[in-house]
Here is the input.
Amino acid sequence: MVKSLTVSMLNSFIAAAGRHQSRSDMLKHFLRMVIFRGGMAHSGSILVWEKAEEPEGALRLFNDGDFLFKEGFLDRDKYPKSKFAPWEGLAGEAFTSGRARYNNDVTSDPNYINRGEPIKSMVCVPIILPSRSRPFGVASFHNPESEPGFDEEARDTIELAVSILSLALALGGAWQKQIFLVHGRDTEALTKLQLILERRAVRSISLSDEPGTGELLLQKLEEIVAECSAGFVLLTPDDEGRLRSSDSWKLRARQNVVFEGGLLSAMFRDRSRVCFLKTGEIELPSDLHGVKYEQFDPKQPNEGRIERILTEWGVTWARPNR
Here is the structure.
């Protein structure tokens, strides 16, 4: 088998990712390209980091619909394990260090745990996404003893392919329709905005939707935002405040909303991808006076304006049934 990833193969993968493939389809396409079409390895898989009972999470074998075994990427009887600690094995080293790791004789590694898999040489490359505190996961490729190890050219080619996968995931093919929402206690405004997005087949997510795991706010927010293409910040009059020198109380957004909205703007590094929605007469923090915001009335929302904002962001949406 010729071991080569051609430019046309990589271009084909990028074009497919640009057609808004799901994350699952994108990862499957990637593995087929590297192993079957490019012949770069005898077998391989992708381990995706996920939240788990353990505080540090876990690396889970990506195997939607059992496709790894059905399509011959792995032998079901020889690869029984599907969940790994983030530091476990060569893949764990790549994940924790954020750098590619390889070994052309894993059997000589004292840290290698032989579970009967027919592995002699391995290459593990972390899948790095912007705005994430940890890798998305690890691409792992291996050869048995009957095949040669991975030379420098093969390793460089695999690392290039994984870099392209990372770019495709980061540019939004997988989560292009997911919008992050920052909100306070006005459930009417939040519910109305969620409904507007839902009716247009646009998924929304917020910190309050995520189960508590004890993670730091910044880290948790980073990971969620990395899976979104843009965000709305609902500024609703939930609190009152005043200067110590003034007797006049003014309606304000909750402090957590202002804080998360500022973080959201910084994480996207592009203010045009964050829209502040102001409900009623509300005092804006001085730091937000230069930021663009829209008026949002939950009783009579300007749905056409929301649609135009989604279009400006490049988010595809479905026209709702009236």
Summary: The two ends are 56 Å apart (CA to CA). The CA atoms of residues 164 and 237 lie 44 Å apart. Residues 178-313 form a domain with the Rossmann fold fold (CATH 3.40.50.10140).
